[in-house]
Amino acid sequence: MATATATAKNTAKLAAQRAQVSALTMYEWVALDKRGKRMKGEMTAKNASLVKAELRRQGMNPQTVRERGKPLFGSTGSTVKPGDVAIFSRQIATMMASGVPMVQAFEIIADGQKNVRFKNMLTDVKQTIEGGAALHEALAKYPIQFDELYRNLVHAGESAGVLDTVLDTVATYKERMENTKAKIKKALFYPTMVVAVAMLVSMIMLLFVVPVFAQTFKDAGAELPVPTQIVMNASEFMKAYWWLVIGSIVGTVVAIVMANKRSPKFAHFLDRVALRLPVMGDILRKSAIARFARTLGVTFRAGVPLVEAMEAVAGATGSIVYGEAVLQMRDDVAVGHQLQLSMRQTGLFPNMVVQMTAIGEESGALDHMLFKVAEFYEEEVNTAVDTLSTLLEPLIMVILGVVVGGMVIALYLPIFKLAGTV
Asked: For this UniProt entry, which segments traverse the membrane (predicted)?
């Protein structure tokens, strides 16, 4: 009962602090220092009078203090990207390792932020820490940017008194994860663009180019070859029902996206299909294994209990299939099974990964072996993506050549036929 009451009080305290910080306004100021030199900067406060008071306290004579205007085209930095969090993690880790106090480190990093939303977020966290909250409690106010895994690692570092070391590990982890994500996005970008460009070129030709040839052939009264007639029919259909074609494409994409978000069964089916794709599936599998191994290695090294860590690790694999497997492994480990045995039962991990995990468990160096696995598969993903990109360049030319060239040949076949009869 007492614990619940204390938790409720802490929650109410954090909410009050957050409301207080959200009421702060960013001011731009110009002041003269003791030498009469003109200085300018920015400061967050409730009103301009407090800004002037703070400047005088620092020995400066305020000249102008005004509320910072909003950008012409909306708020700068409307979203906080994972890359922003990765950079912040490295900055805070470096400063903490150098002996800079946490509050001062947050203030320095916030002042250097160009993303307004992230800057206000860091200022809020700093104010919460000044109010007596631990770092992981302050970060809990922003669960989207600082997920459960991130907060658990920070909490473990605070509990063990090695926060600077854990923050450095977290920074490396975030950088590696963002690098892997960027590689996967790069691999997915090219095929998507090939399909999009091919469809766009085809629609333009059917709507604007083919009708010109159709009128010419009609005036000549020539008998059209089968390929040409197919292209003509497709053009007529596109001209009459272009709205239906575009609507079907857009509707299909939207339906798949919505179903993936709202239906766990469909999302599981889609993820399993993606993992079975010829080339891309291999990249996705290796990426999931790399993220699993690095995330579990980081949490285990930070001192987070294995069973507790695996629940957070499940969400970090980037794959629903692998995430469900990790949760099953967690249940097996909770009743006393070895991790390597649980991994083998899923059938999703290669024998090398299982063997290295078994060696790590027996030697007491599980985190070290997991990092080795992560490094190996991260390099495999990098190599696979680079190879895929190299192979896709000629493939793009072939696909566009077949689509566009096929239409052009179909349109010129009657002309060639007429020229042969002359």
From this structure: 187-214, 240-259, 395-415
pLDDT in tens, 262-302: 888 888 888 898 888 888 888 889 988 988 888 888 888 87
CATH superfamily of 173-421: Type II secretion system (T2SS), domain F (1.20.81.30)
Selected residue with higher pLDDT from 386 and 138: 138
Dihedral, CA atoms, 46, 48, 49, 53, nearest 10 degrees? 90
Averaged pLDDT, 164-178: 82
Q: Report whether 93 contacts 84 (CB < 8 A).
A: no
Joined together, the tokens standing for residue 226 give 């089968």
CA of 241: how far to CAs of 211, 233, 316, 382, in Å? 15, 12, 44, 44
